[in-house]
Please model this.
Amino acid sequence: MRSPLSGAAVRRVLSNRRRVVAASVVVVLLAALLVWLARPEGAGFRTESAPVTVRSGPAGDEPVTLDTTFYLPDGASAGAKVPAVLLAHGFGGTKDSVRSDAEDLVARGYAVLTWTARGFGRSGGQIHLDNPDYEIRDGQRLLDWLAARPEIRTDSAGDPRVGVVGGSYGGGLALLLAAQDPRVDAIVPMITWNDLSRAFLPESTGKPATEGVFKKGWAGIFFGGGGNAGSGPAGLSGSTGAAQPEQAPTAAGAPSPQPGAGPGSGPGRGPAGAADPSCGRFAADVCAAYLRIATTGRADQAAVDLLRRSSPAGALDRIKSPTLLVQGEADTLFPLTEADANARGIAANGTPVRVAWFTGGHDGGEGPKTDSDRVKFLTAQWLDHYVKGEGAAPGDDFTFSRIAGFDALDRGLVATGYRTTDYPGVAGTGRREVTVSGPAQPVANPPNGNPAAISSVPFAGALGSLLDGVAGDIPGQHARFESAPLDRAVDVVGAPTVQVRAASPTGEAVLFVKLYDVDPNGAATLPDGLVAPVRLTGLPRTVEAATPVTVTLPAIVRRVEAGHRLRLVVATSDQAYTTPAEPTVYTVAAGDAPLVLPTVTGEPIPTGAAVWRWVLAGLLAAIAVGLVVVVLLARRRHRRQDSSIHPEYAGVPLAVRDLRKEYADGFVAVSHVDFEVHPGQVVGLLGPNGAGKTTTLRVLMGLTQPTAGEIYVFGHRLVPGSPVLSRIGALVEGPGFLPHLSGLENLKAYWRATGRPEGDAHFEQALEIAGLGDSVHRKTRKYSHGMRQRLAIAQAMLGLPELLVLDEPTDGLDPPQIAEMRRVLQRYATDGRAVLVSSHLLAEVEQTCTHAVVVNKGRIVASGPVAEIVGESPSVLFDVTDPEAARAVLDRLDGVRVLPDGDGGLVVDTNGTARSEVVAELVRAGIGVDRVVPRRRLEDAFLALVGENSRGSGDR
Model:
């Protein structure tokens, strides 16, 4: 066949291709250069690790040794002073927990002092929970130590230029240290608390902490983590926000020994002075308060006062240091409301405050890289301006983020950040009201809180936003109230509120209120495992007499899509909380007011990762456009087709003429294929493996170009992209469905991609053909192979195309489904429609197809009606009244042989003897003959045509 491009055209195409490739290379190199220029210059640094003894305590005279490491940039000296950062670790961690963050900061030109807090790792002392007299005074002495270093920039004698950064336990220290010591120039507290009593004894109707519900899960982890030298849960381990349980290593990497605090300390033992060895290295008053609360499930005022002593809530009016508050949305320990309270209290003083919410937290770690990068950027920007004195003022705009999906490049989660000028708090700037309804329902409180619902499991709450079924409510122990499907999506940013009513025979009830996002398939998601515990008192015995109570649900950031429902669940138990031990039954009803969802309209933040993704997308698009141009030029002449119709084939669904396909290496897959498919026919394309069947179908569907020959569909010459392809439905090379969509959604997405009206799809007929029933609403990733095959056949039949081309349509189907497929194809080939089916199941082809085309070694060896291909049979099937007597008679006839595969009758090879003579012999012997049928199968004809040991051409 003559090449579709002349030599000059080929040279032009190759020249254009070289230009496209050269331009692509230049773009890639420029992108790499810009990335390199944008990277912070990684300066070298040196470290000094040493124990530092400070004096703290109420009188400031109690010595404690702290294990420290000091990071100093190369070049820093008395003549080249640098600002400093005090970097605090999370609870249960050590100075090693924040090593990578320290290295990032020292690379930006800061001296960084890290230390292991008292009571952890190699440091001495006991844990006082960021007590102003102990941990906070330790921080003040470390400020003194920094001020004495000659390399540190100072504002005045004894006043170092310093910022304080810390996560969780370290974040609380940053806030309290700034309130206690005016030398702190800026702070970045992350995922930390405002009121420690409220954090561990929350109550979502506004009651005091003494009425709060004890968060036993997190409290148990905290006090378990304080029982040895360095292990336990860490909060965010510094500026990156990485939740890392840490164990302090020795130089050899093994767990470190207990600090030498005296004879009373050691693994599994309380230090000298501890009230109870079960509290490990906690101070005696903290230990006693914990044991009282954990035993009774309630806090007395003395315990609340102790926790508030270690809370920023009472000291916010003294914080004058510019504050960047970073709080995690996936945090069942310190939720977003804790940062909100800190922000409002500090801003009331006129102190610069900025709030950033991110998708990580104690339950979500750093969050996606796009989000952790944003937090790093905000931290660096804040410190550079307020500590280093560089860059413009960061401003006080509010930023938050939401999980946007999965990254196609690394399959990790991706978060989209948003900003808005004014901080809205947890009430939002807008609101959406949704009615939830349902009857009043009895709910049982189980004895001793067991079994308990699983919702806010420490460290795992974020799983509730990703996996259906992670949160589990116990039957009989929860009431449900649901909304109608939402008519439009809503972006929830803040703390929803809802009303409930409850009745109790004891007058009291502890309940857990949750808000689920329920998709159209019924999958329910509890955002970040967050629940609202409430303790109700003074309740009546009947719910009709109950007064509605407003519950403030945990603040969330979530998009609830249109068509989803909201489910309000009120449960009596939760694995993470202490509930009443006495069994009882409450009655719960929804309140009169609607569910209120706060909203915030934010502007998307273009992150560095997003920018480079757009650059990469643009680059790939440019390359793709260039390749498309090359392909279009290469096929230009081939595609220059007019709209004329070949008159001979105008009414023929398919005509294949002299088809040949030869590959570049000289391999001939199809050498001469010539056949037609007419209206009303079901044509089977048969051949051994490698005969050329698949290549023929690929050419037919425009998936590969033929070397020679033509294909006509209803008289139109077929080329890739030809409009007449819309009249063909095909299943070739297997289906390609999106696993996260249901079967029906996949069909609709496919049809939308065709650009044709939805009314032309005939979904109902296609779904009836698929026979998937309710499974059509399930996600296709849960489909079996056979279910995917049936859905693919339904997809091929969308629009009821006039020509249906199927490659192995019965693959993966069971016998009943195969039989049904046979009937479907026979019914389909009516009203001028036709079917071409490739299959290796010869018995099915024989029963299904009206015509067959047999291909062997790239050539057609037979074609025509199936009956003609099967032909005259040398064997005959006899149905007789007495098979055994008939066998004896036939065995006496010369040349006549009874074959073994009778299937209930007698299959006889007459070997030239007239059938009438055989019948006469049987009748003379008194044997009744009911039926005489020629016995030959398509398989016999197929093997005769291609040979039993035939191998194809190696079809590709």
User: Anything to note?
Assistant: The first strand starts at residue 45 and ends at 56. The mean pLDDT is 82.
